[in-house]
Amino acid sequence: MNHDLFRLPLLFIILCAVQVFVLNHCQLFGCAMPMLYVYFVISMKKGMAKWAMMVWAFALGLLLDTFSNTPGVTAATMTLAAMVQPYLLDLFITREGGDDLIPSKSTIGTKPFINYTIVMVTLFCTVFYTLEMLNFLNGLKWLECVLGSMALTVALILALDSLIYKKG
Q1: Contact 102/43 with Cβ under 8 angstroms?
Q2: Which among 50, 44, 61, 55 is positioned nearest to 8, based on CA atoms?
Q3: Which of 37, 39, 107, 164 has its C-alpha lying 20 to 30 A from 18's C-alpha?
Q4: pTM to 2 decimals?
Q5: CB neighbours of 162 closer than 8 A, spacing ≥ 6?
């Protein structure tokens, strides 16, 4: 049976619920907010069809936009993240990785997964806050939001990945 048939919808529902009911209410210093839902795109299977990745990411982004009062920002940023995910993933995995590879510390290694996560989250946070603010008049506030959210999100993603893919 197809593993993604259950994994993706379950991950979709869990990440959406956690973001809406818990993480949207956790802001450090008024700017840094953890965006754990990026893990949905980060953990998509290597050989998944690009159109399917983008549809899943857009749907999650649109649902989060509805509950977070960020009209279109999350949907656009999630779609962009899904569009670049296969190309960024190829930079951090070895050639032996099959098309059914699900990125995690246990499948691609700790250092490549951490680097891959940092790049994806940095891209996501940069685009998200650029679209949300739509100006650079307050560049320091923008930078605080990007760096703070990036640090919180990377830490949460690495912790979640460790919980899901425990060794032993």
Answers
A1: yes
A2: 44
A3: 107
A4: 0.89
A5: 105
Q: What are the tokens at 140?
A: 């320091």
Q: Is 115 exposed, middle or buried (0-12, 13-18, 19+ CB in 10 A)?
A: middle
What phi, psi does 164 have (nearest 5°)?
Answer: -70, -45
Locate all alpha helices (DSSP H) within 44-109, ordered by sequence.
Answer: 50-68, 73-92, 105-108
* Residues pairing with 32 in the sheet: 28
* Ordered mean pLDDT values, 10 residues apiece, the chain (168 residues): 72 89 82 90 89 94 90 94 92 75 86 94 94 80 91 94 75
Q: Tokens in use for 27? A: 């802001």
CA distance 105 to 60: 24
Give me the torsion for CA of 79, 102, 122, 88, rounded to 10°.
-80
Structure tokens at 68: 């977070």
H helix or E strand, kind and range, residue 157 = helix 139-164
Contacts of 99 (CB under 8 A, 6+ apart): 45, 46, 47
* Cα dihedral across residues 48, 8, 19, 107: positive or negative: negative
Report the C-alpha dihedral over residues 43, 163, 19, 119, rounded to 10 degrees.
-40
145: its two tokens:
């939001």
- Using left for φ > 0, alpha for ψ between -120 and 50, and beta otherwise, residue 150 falls in alpha
